[in-house]
Design brief:
Order of helices and strands: EHEEHEEEHEHEEHEHEHHEEHHH
Largest sheet: 4 strands, mixed
Structural class: alpha+beta
Strand order of the largest sheet: 1-8-9-10
Shape: flat
Number of helices: 11
Radius of gyration: 21 Å
Strand content: 15-25%
Distance between the termini: 33 Å
Number of strands: 13
Helix content: 25-40%
Length: 388
């Protein structure tokens, strides 16, 4: 029996994504100064206001310099997104910074000391996933939802007179055959903020050819199954239309609901936080399993205890698509990659300021040819040959 499956994406101008971008901008700023910096930065954005809160740690002699650079960096990030609205303008919003020193109780649990190996920054579970639905080994619904919004953002930024504005959402419903292969697209939804006075027909005429160009041949739907700005008007958007918070788009950030999620958000967290680094490691492992040819689909779960270096569990599920036992794959992976927090950071080079580009259009499945995405080392398939 065939079935439908839907995933959504949101643009870089969505209020929550604005906050993710700000939080990762702050993280990158700290890592530029100190690769061992600790950052847990949360952002709130609303009408003409951006507020930071959270915990940070860097050498004392660097702190004043770093803190003085935060506001200009945040304003530059929001300018790059494209916000110049009367009620949310990169140059005019009120900025408040409540970042403070990291808790000593957390630090003592995760820092290396003497013979004690650095432990995980928190307990929790993280998932990675890969499948053969796209060349990037990502689920197709989330992959194409991201691609549509990214293309529209590029168009908007390239045209000073564009009708498009930064805030947008896309949604794809695919038809799957009983064997899991894709039969086509059932419905497409796109809601995009637009210039004052632009009609629904104007926006439909602008975006329809873009969507058709993004999708594989034969996937484009007819007008009745293409919902463009269904409410008819979307002039007020971004943090003025709806408050944003860091970390509220965890399914958009990962696999669009096609795989489990451990619940932890990524943006604003330095790579000692396994919410982020172990999720990247799990994707890296799952992608290499599929890229090796030994499975068509792979889910991996890692779990940690705060202050403990080794994962408390590693789980591999190839969903019946491999002739190799899942336990054997698990043993091989653990022999290839050190899954302690420090081991993950070292193997994937995560102590670098590479995070702001992850804040929109997904953390996974980004191609090496995409601007900025060449810095996403968890997308490498360098251990696939050893698995094969």
């Amino acid at each position: 029996m065939s079935y439908l499956f839907t995933s959504e994406s949101v643009s870089e101008g969505h209020p929550d994504k604005v906050c993710d971008r700000v939080s990762d901008t702050v993280l990158d700023l700290f890592l530029q100064h100190d690769k061992q910096a600790r950052v847990a930065c949360e952002t709130l954005a609303t009408t003409n206001r951006v507020v930071l809160a959270g915990e940070v740690r860097a050498p004392e002699e660097m702190m004043d310099d770093i803190m003085s650079q935060i506001e200009p960096a945040v304003r530059a990030a929001i300018a790059d997104i494209g916000y110049e609205q009367d009620k949310f303008h990169h140059a005019h919003f009120e900025f408040q910074n409540y970042l403070h020193e990291q808790s000593a109780d957390i630090a003592v649990g995760v820092d290396e000391a003497g013979d004690k190996e650095e432990g995980a920054g928190d307990q929790g579970l993280m998932f990675g996933y890969a499948c053969r639905e796209t060349d990037e080994l990502m689920p197709a619904p989330i992959h194409y939802s991201h691609a549509i919004l990214k293309r529209l953002a590029e168009m908007r930024k390239a045209d000073a007179d564009s009708l498009l504005r930064p805030d947008a959402k896309s949604q794809l419903t695919l038809i799957y055959n009983e064997d899991g292969s894709i039969a086509g697209v059932d419905k497409i939804v796109l809601s995009t903020q637009h210039a004052v006075g632009a009609s629904q027909a104007d926006i439909r005429a602008l975006v329809t050819p873009v969507i058709a160009d993004i999708l594989p041949d034969g996937w484009m739907v007819g007008a009745d199954d293409l919902y463009i700005n269904p409410t008819g008007i979307f002039e007020i958007g971004g943090p003025d239309g709806d408050a944003g918070l860091t970390g509220r788009k965890i399914i958009v950030d990962t696999y669009g609901g096609a795989a489990p999620h451990g619940g932890g958000a990524f943006s604003g967290k330095d790579p000692t936080k396994v919410d982020r680094s172990a999720a990247y490691a799990a994707r890296y492992l799952a992608k290499n399993v599929v890229a090796s040819g030994i499975a068509d689909k792979c889910t991996i779960q890692l779990a940690y205890a705060i202050g403990v270096a080794e994962p408390v569990s590693v789980y591999v599920n190839t969903h019946g698509t491999s002739s190799v036992a899942d336990n054997d794959i698990q043993d091989k992976l653990r022999g290839l990659v050190d899954l302690t927090p420090k081991g993950i950071r070292t193997h994937l080079g995560l102590n670098a300021p590479i995070y702001a580009p992850t804040a929109a259009y997904g953390h996974f499945g980004r191609t090496a040819g995409e601007a900025g995405a060449g810095t996403f080392p968890w997308e490498a398939t360098d251990i696939a040959s050893q698995l094969a």
